[in-house]
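Table S4 entry, Major facilitator superfamily (MFS) profile domain-containing protein.
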Amino acid sequence: MTDQNVLVVDWDGPDDPQNPKNWPRAKKWRATIIVSLFTFITPVSSSMLAPAAPHIAEELGIHGTVERALVVSVFVLAFAFGPLLLGPLSELYGRVRVIQLSNLFFLAWNLGCGFAQTKEEIIVFRFFAGLGGSSPLSVGGGVLSDVWRAEERGAAIAIYSLMPLLGPVIAPVTGAWVAERTTWRWVFWSTSIFTCFVQALGLIFLRETFEPVLLARKANRIRKEIVAGGSVNVVERDPRSPTQHILHALVRPFALFAYEPIVQLMGVYMAFVYGIFYLYLTVIPSIFEGETYHESVGIAGLHYIAFGLGVSLASQINARMLDRIYVYFKNRNEGKGEPEFRLPSMVPGTILLPAGLIITGWAAQKAVHWIVVDIGLFLVGGGMILNFQCIQTYVIDAFTLHAASGLAAVSFLRSLAGFGFPLFAPSMYAALGVGWGDTLLAFVAIIVGCPAPWIFWYYGKKIRSKSRYAHKT
């Protein structure tokens, strides 16, 4: 209490159990797993219909190659725009409320896709489903930033960041068998059923984590307890009006992208990696169903498993290493942690990705045994997830309070790439062949990706010290 009878609302000391960072470990992991499930289901929906695309095209009269690819990739286009709104809104109204409501929006439109009767309907329905489904990709990272301290959040983020890559890898395997044995409409209905299950878990177990929202609720509780006409005023720490809050929050992702080199360079590289990811999701069936390997839709879909194994194995190794590496360098830095301590395990990712691209492309071009192609896919998947996890963890550590806006800014470019790459892939491979096409991608991956971790390892702290939004150590 001050001389002016103003009570400043804050946590009741550093060990306040209401502070999400002081939650029991089991409660933190419960929030992590549920958010990861939300982050899993929407990417599953983005690619599960890829093997069923020929059936959809035949029934709905979709004849052009670009139009057929658009049915799959328009969902990812919505991923670019949704987080720009939903990420900042989560920093105003709370993470959980935004995740739950946007997931219901996704559920409604995804269910509607199963009833689409024209190509226009399915494209529009897919876009709106993607808007709703995009929130966990940015807001979920904010939840992990809220509940985990820097030295312990690496393993949690490793699991969370695995989902957007593992989901689309598993989905085509399932989608291929669903399309072969039932109807393509069950691709949408089955994902909607699973979404209902995840939504129920969230309603029961997921609790709000964002500190300013929790403190605002605490202030409201105190206000109600004060006798009307009393001499005590309850004041939140941020005196801005609701309109100022909303405008500032909505502009923040654009400001981060415009002025933050961390977001710019990491965003460009993640966009390239994500673009290759969705390009491969559409290319794998054509490689194995074509004239070289002559496999059925169901068997060709099994090659996604090699991709998924690379993603899963590298993710599990990195989950164990991220925090160990962080703590090791923190101890060598007089106990001071730095976001840059997340970058060392990105280095092998920048090497594995181009190596896998070259192996996959030339093995397929020369009609080598399919196991060699799968080895290349395994390396591509491993390289992707290492880059993906390290970049996400670095952005979250660098923009802790505004992690959702930081991830939204990074997600914007990556989702545009995920939308665009599959559209130009047929033309590129038709002109260059799979071998030279993948070699071109590998060359760009080396030029853009290999310098990135070293640049921020040596200059990241200096860059953050001049930032308006980044965490300064």
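The chain has one domain: 7-224+241-465.
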